[in-house]
């Protein structure tokens, strides 16, 4: 095998020097990337797409989702339910991505004319129903809200048995999700998940990188365009979708980059962040708290807004995060913001000593390729964060098991 050295880079030195003279770093990087891709003989379409990722001015928002078969099926089903004034229930995961996806669909359905009495949301309780579209969660949802159409957000791709049960009850469903499908378990329903489209003409790397909220945004954006809705606020939707995409750790390229960048630009303006009063309330709490104040940037998204929106679902009920996103007046927003902020402060108090104990225990496991720790005192809502901290500290995969009480005779299970 012959390994060829890449051609030398003869990039103009004055382009580098201009950085010290106050030139735009982004412009220099953009030119360098284009120059390097030209040298490597990359296809023109690829060079153009990659170059766009580094330019200062963002490309216009594009929506490739309406061209897909799954979108057309989902749009037709949702629009028909709205036209017939059927009862629609939004079932979302309890993290920031899931709750934001619920808020995005809620906003669209109300703007499309669905009466408030015909719209409900259900977010499962982590410690009661488990993760995702589980049978206990779905049965509870159906019993409470009696949906005619269930829109499942940020979960459900592999819930074949649950969707089959739902179909037997005469309830239609649409799933909007971004998790990897397991072929034998993929739900038999309208499934809007680009990761399930491998081998089809609709397969797109750009769509595959989206969060559930990113997909939800493109879904409602497409339907709002088709219906020519004037009541739907695209800036409000972009702010929520961009925030969720960043918090859910999606790669900040392509459509994700457009959403995140525009969301940050909106969030930095009073009339922009005011589109979501709950986020405006959180920003006021941030400025008054010990968290580093000053300019609102991506760290604010990832280290403050995100944890505040995730904390209610970790410790109790994610409905507080949904109430924050859906709040329409300052008083309601402030109350929901304080609830989410306080939940996050409580989460940090719970997590801190557990992380210290886990790092100490992991440091004694010198020869293991995978770090596995079990602690009956570990709160199940923070186990994932602790596992991430351990992985980062020791550069090894980490698993944290917590004890959960059950009604079984053995008293509980490790999870």
Brief synopsis:
This protein has 415 residues and is an alpha/beta fold.
Molecular shape? globular
The secondary structure category is alpha/beta
Radius of gyration: 23 Å
How many strand elements?
Answer: 8
Could you name the key traits of this structure?
alpha/beta; 18 helices; single chain; disordered C terminus; 415 residues; 8 strands
What can you see in these coordinates?
It is a single chain. The protein has about 425 residues and is of the alpha/beta class. About 55% of the residues lie in helices and about 10% in strands. It has helices at about 15-20, 25-40, 45-50, 70-85, 95-110, 125-130, 135-145, 160-170, 205-210, 210-225, 235-245, 255-265, 270-275, 275-290, 300-315, 320-325, 330-360, 385-395, and strands spanning about 90, 120, 150-155, 170-175, 190, 370-375, 400-405, 410-415. The strands form two sheets. A five-stranded parallel beta sheet has the order 2-1-3-4-5, sandwiched between helices. A three-stranded mixed beta sheet has the order 6-7-8, covered by helices on one side. Helix 5 (about 95-110) crosses helix 16, helix 10 (about 210-225) packs antiparallel against helix 11 and helix 11 (about 235-245) packs across helix 12. The longest helix has about 35 residues, at about 330-360. The model is unreliable at about 1-25, about 45-55 and about 410-415 (pLDDT under 50).
Topology of helices and strands:
Elements: H1 13-20, H2 25-39, H3 44-52, H4 69-83, E1 88-92, H5 96-111, E2 119-122, H6 126-129, H7 135-145, E3 149-153, H8 160-168, E4 172-176, E5 190-192, H9 205-208, H10 212-227, H11 234-247, H12 254-267, H13 270-273, H14 277-288, H15 298-315, H16 319-326, H17 330-362, E6 371-375, H18 383-394, E7 398-405, E8 412-414
Parallel strand pairs: 1-2, 1-3, 3-4, 4-5, 6-7
Antiparallel strand pairs: 7-8
